[in-house]
Write a structure and sequence with these properties.
de novo design (two linked rop proteins); five-stranded mixed beta barrel; 7 helices; 42% helix; elongated
């Protein structure tokens, strides 16, 4: 058996496996995206009962197997309870984790996307900025971190100066500064139109959580 490995990361998704186990997908700084099985995690007395669920962030101890890892211990520093207890925020959070899973791979450095995901979930716990602005910023930054953002989009002639400035800011800003601004409805409309168009052009997947999110946003509107 391999030596235990400590990784820092977040549970992106979890599903039942067998009678009492749980299959999790973790985004880690050290190993990128990995699949880890938490044996007995669905038992009420399991120390992994809460940890083997989406949004859990902390240090996870795993054993590496041939095709997957086995999760044996977790030291969770943030469960993002405020996000999970707010239905709207939870819908956005689930979408962000699905996007993070899309952009990451096993054995590739996952630290940048993990850090982006963490600060984005923290932003969801605050009243500002608007959740839809958070969504667009996250999508844009994730695309840029993955090397897929067409930077010439910032200079599109049809955009107002304010919209171009906002796009340039997101591309250049450190993660800690990403969610420190708001936009007027007019400028945000431009900002969102650009990002929605890029999502169609650059992303080849239909996210299940996005369908739920759009239905919710349209219902609120």
């Amino acid at each position: 058996m391999s030596e235990p490995l400590n990784v820092t990361g977040m549970v992106l998704s979890a599903a039942p496996s067998g009678e009492y186990d749980r299959r999790t997908v973790l985004l880690t700084r050290e190993r990128g995206k990995i699949t880890a099985f938490a044996r007995g995690a669905r038992r009420t007395n399991s120390p992994l009962l809460a940890a083997a669920n989406p949004f859990a962030f902390g240090t996870f101890t795993v054993y590496e197997g041939r095709n997957a890892y086995t999760l044996i211990r977790a030291d969770v520093s943030n469960y993002f309870t405020e996000v999970k207890e707010d239905f709207e925020a939870a819908c956005y959070g689930c979408y962000f984790m699905e996007v993070a899973e899309y952009y990451t791979r096993e054995n590739l450095d996952g630290s940048q996307v993990l850090n982006l995901l963490y600060v984005t979930l923290r932003a969801l716990t605050r009243k500002m900025p608007d959740h839809e602005l958070i969504r667009c910023i996250f999508e844009m930054k994730a695309m840029a971190l993955n090397g897929e953002y067409p930077y010439d989009m910032v200079q599109e002639p049809s955009l107002s100066e304010s919209a171009r400035y906002a796009l340039a800011f997101v591309l250049q800003a450190p993660l800690q500064k990403l969610y420190t601004f708001t936009l007027t409805p007019e400028v945000f409309s431009e900002f969102r139109r650009v990002q929605d168009r890029l999502n169609v052009l650059q992303i080849d997947r239909n996210f299940k959580s996005l369908k739920i999110l759009k239905a919710m946003v349209d219902g609120i509107a």
